[in-house]
């Protein structure tokens, strides 16, 4: 904010942490500007009427010289930096002003000062405060002439007394200082009273010296014309003294600026360390644009530049991002093939429009700059960024040697600080992120989720489990399993968005935090996640089928109101919800009753053996018929458990628990004995119906299992071809070295082997050819969907053709309507099984079903063949 009294106070833009505060400050300053300008115009009119000119008309020719003197005094200013975004410039405007009291009328001095002041602002491209400064110019000159007029009337006598001219001249810098201090108050910047008083005193001292020199020169020249060389010598000496003082001040301010920039980077690093360890890690890994803008603003103020551009590359693979302080860049900012950016070494380059080659001249014109200082920020031959300073404002001569030295030293300090910041950020990133996926780890998730859970309602923690991880790692190795985990993490990130905190906890287990969601919305998001994660994963030349389970939990109202949400507790609840998922219901929200789920499973495992002995566990049978002749070919044995406390238990709930507890052998032996006993009864009735029993991967790891099967067949005197073992590809391939020898031994006995759920596991011809199997069972998901999905229809047709090409019997599960049965029959499918034929039935109901829905006819040997009635 310049003033005609020789002080220029320039209020640079001070970065704010909130855009609304900056807008409020701008509105306040506009009102202040209007007030200053209005008061200045009114007082100028009053003073013009009150103080008529009484000097000699012979001296009016010197008026243009007076305007030139004001302009020269403004250009020879010496910057004095003051905190709070305000700087003053010591100039020599008191000298032409004090002479103007004697040789020119008030209106001429006012116009000359306005032309010099506004012209200097426009030359320095300070356009944002022109109206305010114009008002300040008016008040400075009118105030000076008003005080001079009062002193003149007090003293009396013709002409302008020297005492009145001296008093009026000192009034101008005082008015300028008071206006600037008021502007600091309006802009809500802080300045101590002692600092303001000290600054005002120094300005008055400098103004008094300047005014005394001008007054003495005028008196000497006009009374002793031969003494003007002496006055000129005194003026030159004073100028040299001010210039030396300016250099001393500059060195001091340069040291302060270096210290400020280093402290700002270090302080922002401390603030970044206290922030949540989110993956987004704002521009600069925690340093946001406002903080970098403050650093750029500090450099701009120190260099008195019109614009400073910081181009920073915080990551080696990132493109440079620009932060601009001062005038905005006139064109779209780009660093591609920019000659000002392609800088060798680490020294400062000074470019001038008048001296540049065509390529550099074009780059300067694109920036709207006449000159530029450019220096790279380097560390260990790595380019971290670039600093550009455009168009020095304080002197007409442009950037000098001291500016080049300052910017070079500042760039060295800033590069070192940035390098340290990057190192600390890397260490912190590694401490809170998973090295495989780059997602948050458990400590990082705990830190990131703590604040949203405390401050925002409707928070939900999701726990996602990809349950094929251990199978893939065992079958293909950890490298392929890791690839699946990376792919799963990418799918979750794409589904939830980049702003959602996401962590890999362990293995193929993930956690995410969503906020401001209702339980219904959280369930929809979880369903979407499960569907996305359950899609097949291409692994090299294989396509691995996967299944995902999602559990979610929310803070209780009491926890939210008490501001005491425990992240670990929510993760544990979400984990309980995951473990509570069952087949067909892969997404569950936590409810308090789930807290007893582990106790329930413990009871099931400990009571299972006794329940088998007590008859609580039974076997149901689901018939299978051949196509197209509709003969009842066999049944599949399915276990059922009616618990005295828990009631009917779903097999998907208790079978995994029994298997994990090592009791699957007991269950398989029980189902096998019940099935063989049923087959024996049918044989005694002249019916040749086979029974299929499901095998677990743990059965195939038991070397004694074939011997136990042989003993059971002999005990019930059942031909081995009437016994079928169903197994999954994933179960076999989890440990093929153990499973394949056992399967070959069973197959050599004449037992029928079937691949269950075909199409959802490895499902490749290479693996299928390794298995000594006789049947493939098409997974019911494809059969159910083939009526509406052409893709499922194509899959079913392909499996039928593949099975027949290998000489295998093809069984279709999930046949629930006539259309599906007819389509399968048209494809040449051999056997059908599903609700269209019958649901799983207990023994007595199965017997009734056979009597009611089949017709008996003699077979080729002596057995009776059951044909399904239509």
From TrEMBL:
Pfam families: EAL (PF00563), GAF (PF01590), GGDEF (PF00990). Residues 601-854 form the EAL domain. Gene3D superfamilies: 3.30.450.40, 3.30.70.270, EAL domain (3.20.20.450). The chain crosses the membrane at residues 31-51, 58-78, 98-123, 130-151, 163-187, 199-221. This is Diguanylate phosphodiesterase. Residues 457-592 form the GGDEF domain. Keywords: Membrane, Transmembrane, Transmembrane helix. InterPro entries: Cyclic-di-GMP_PDE-like, EAL_dom, EAL_sf, GAF, GAF-like_dom_sf, GGDEF_dom, Nucleotide_cyclase, Rev_trsase/Diguanyl_cyclase. The keyword Cell membrane does not apply. It comes from Amycolatopsis albispora. SMART domains: EAL, GAF, GGDEF. SUPFAM superfamilies: EAL domain-like, GAF domain-like, Nucleotide cyclase. GO terms for molecular function: cyclic-guanylate-specific phosphodiesterase activity.
């Amino acid at each position: 904010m310049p003033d005609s009294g020789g002080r220029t106070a320039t209020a640079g833009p001070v970065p704010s942490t909130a855009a609304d505060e900056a807008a409020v400050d701008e509105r306040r300053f506009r009102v202040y500007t209007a007030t200053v300008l209005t008061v200045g115009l009114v007082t100028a009119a009053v003073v013009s009427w009150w103080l008529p000119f009484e000097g000699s008309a012979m001296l009016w020719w010197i008026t243009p010289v007076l305007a030139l003197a004001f302009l020269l005094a403004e250009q020879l200013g010496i910057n004095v930096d003051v905190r709070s975004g305000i700087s003053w410039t010591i100039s020599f405007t008191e000298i032409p002003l004090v002479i103007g009291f004697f040789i020119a009328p008030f209106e001429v001095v006012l116009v000359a000062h306005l032309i010099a002041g506004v012209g200097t602002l426009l030359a320095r491209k300070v356009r944002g405060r022109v109206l305010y400064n114009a008002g300040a110019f008016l008040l400075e000159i009118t105030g000076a002439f008003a005080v001079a007029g009062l002193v003149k009337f007090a003293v009396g006598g013709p002409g302008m007394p020297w005492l009145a001219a001296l008093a009026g001249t000192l009034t101008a810098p005082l008015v300028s200082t008071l206006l600037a201090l008021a502007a600091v108050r309006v802009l809500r910047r802080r300045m101590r009273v002692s600092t303001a008083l000290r600054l005002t005193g120094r300005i008055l001292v400098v103004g008094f010296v300047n005014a005394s020199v001008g007054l003495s020169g005028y008196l000497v020249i006009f009374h002793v014309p031969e003494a003007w060389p002496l006055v000129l010598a005194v003026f030159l000496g004073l100028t040299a003294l001010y210039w030396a003082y300016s250099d001393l001040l500059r060195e001091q301010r340069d040291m302060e600026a270096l210290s400020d920039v280093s402290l700002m980077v270090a302080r922002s690093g401390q603030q970044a360390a206290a922030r949540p360890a989110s993956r987004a890690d704002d521009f600069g890994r925690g340093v946001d644009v406002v903080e970098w803008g403050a650093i750029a603003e500090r450099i701009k103020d120190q260099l008195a530049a019109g614009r400073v551009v910081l181009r920073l590359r915080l990551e080696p693979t990132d493109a440079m991002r620009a932060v601009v302080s001062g005038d905005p860049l006139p064109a779209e900012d780009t660093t591609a093939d920019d000659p000002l950016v392609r800088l060798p070494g680490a020294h400062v380059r000074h470019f001038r429009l008048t001296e540049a080659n065509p390529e550099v001249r074009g780059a300067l014109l694109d920036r709207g700059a006449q000159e530029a200082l450019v220096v790279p920020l380097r560390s260990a031959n790595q380019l971290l960024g670039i600093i550009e300073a455009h168009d020095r404002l304080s002197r007409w001569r442009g950037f000098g040697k001291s500016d080049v030295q300052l910017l070079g030293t500042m760039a060295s300090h800033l590069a070192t600080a940035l390098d340290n910041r990057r190192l600390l950020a890397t260490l912190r990133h590694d401490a809170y992120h998973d090295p495989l996926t780059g997602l948050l780890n458990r400590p990082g998730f705990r830190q990131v989720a703590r604040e949203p859970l405390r401050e925002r309602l409707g928070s939900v923690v999701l726990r996602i489990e990809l349950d094929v991880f251990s199978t893939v790692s065992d079958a293909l190795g950890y490298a392929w399993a890791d690839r699946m985990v990376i792919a799963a993490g990418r799918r979750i990130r794409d589904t939830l968005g980049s702003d959602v905190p996401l962590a890999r906890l362990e293995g193929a287990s993930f956690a995410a935090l969503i906020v401001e969601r209702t339980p219904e919305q959280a369930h929809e998001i979880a369903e979407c996640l499960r569907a996305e994660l359950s899609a097949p994963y291409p692994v090299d030349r294989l396509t691995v089928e996967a299944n995902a389970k999602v559990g979610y939990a929310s803070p209780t109202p009491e926890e939210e109101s008490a501001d005491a949400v425990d992240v670990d507790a929510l993760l544990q609840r979400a984990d309980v919800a995951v473990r509570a998922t069952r087949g067909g219901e892969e997404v569950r929200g936590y409810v308090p009753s789930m807290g007893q789920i582990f106790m329930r499973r413990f009871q099931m495992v400990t009571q299972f053996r006794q329940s088998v002995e007590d008859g609580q566990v039974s076997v149901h049978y689901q018939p299978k018929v051949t196509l197209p002749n509709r003969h009842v070919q066999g049944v599949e044995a399915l276990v059922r458990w009616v618990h005295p406390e828990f009631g009917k238990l779903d097999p998907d709930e208790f079978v995994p628990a029994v298997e994990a507890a090592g009791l699957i052998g007991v269950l398989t032996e029980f189902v096998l004995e019940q099935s063989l006993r049923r087959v024996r009864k049918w044989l005694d009735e002249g019916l040749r119906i086979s029974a299929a029993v499901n095998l677990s991967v743990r059965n195939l790891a038991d070397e004694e299992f074939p011997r136990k099967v042989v003993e059971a067949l002999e005990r019930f005197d059942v031909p081995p071809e009437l016994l079928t073992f169903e197994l999954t590809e994933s179960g076999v391939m989890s440990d093929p070295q153990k499973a394949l020898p056992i399967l070959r031994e069973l197959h050599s006995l004449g037992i029928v082997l079937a691949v269950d759920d075909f199409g959802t596991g490895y499902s490749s011809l290479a693996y299928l050819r390794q298995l000594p199997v006789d049947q493939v069972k098409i997974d019911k998901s494809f059969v159910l969907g083939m009526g509406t999905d052409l893709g499922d229809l194509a899959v079913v047709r392909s499996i039928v053709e593949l099975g027949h090409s290998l000489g295998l019997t093809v069984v279709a599960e999930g046949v629930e309507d006539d259309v599906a049965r007819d389509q399968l029959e048209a494809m040449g499918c051999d056997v059908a099984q599903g609700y269209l034929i019958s649901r799983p039935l207990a023994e007595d109901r199965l017997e009734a079903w056979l009597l009611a829905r089949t017709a008996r006819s003699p077979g080729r040997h002596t057995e009776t063949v059951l044909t399904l009635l239509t």
